[in-house]
């Protein structure tokens, strides 16, 4: 499988650091944040990776990673003009993915302890639809929380609910087939003018095509100062 890492955004929760550096290049342990995501993908056997970012940050990624040869991966880059949302950034991957091909999408500030290989293999066996990974969290009001049918399937996902119905959060890793690009055309911008990934996943859920697995290892969204500090402590002694 191929993978797309979404590494744009303004990083508003990490200002003022992100006023001059893309948050995905902030150090975690001995490497930039996004370095760990690429290593996680490579460990799972994914070596063809597209990084989408904004115009201001592209040179920074290219200078650090180049072609990806030093990390034993092949990297390509696309530029998102403006803040159109996660699903809008995903549209940039359309030329990178062949018709009928399955691929993985990773938010660049998400970090995973587990080897993703078993989940990827399960999705490869899945006939169609999409898959998300869930993880128990202490503060579910900060995340996208799935609502379940009585049979255990995901009915829909509620973003940052005031009264969460569970403590299972949708993590920033999604697996799709190439039909995702047609589905993106069927979602409308949210109140903040962006194409939201939750709306996209809810299209799959409404069609009964959104499967999930629950992680046992830790997962982190390293988009705040608190999580950045915790992530750096976890990765400090890791060398690749």
UniProtKB/TrEMBL annotation:
Named cofactor requirement(s): Mg(2+)
Catalysed reactions listed for this entry: dTTP + alpha-D-glucose 1-phosphate + H(+) = dTDP-alpha-D-glucose + diphosphate
A single MF term (Gene Ontology): metal ion binding
Any one Pfam family match given in the protein's UniProt record, by short name: NTP_transferase
EC assignment: 2.7.7.24
Catalytic EC class: transferase
Domain Nucleotidyl transferase: 2-235
Keywords, alphabetical: Magnesium, Metal-binding, Nucleotidyltransferase, Transferase
Keyword Transmembrane helix: no
Keyword field contains Nucleotidyltransferase: yes
SUPFAM superfamilies documented for this protein: Nucleotide-diphospho-sugar transferases
Similarity section: Belongs to the glucose-1-phosphate thymidylyltransferase family.
UniProt-recorded name of the protein: Glucose-1-phosphate thymidylyltransferase
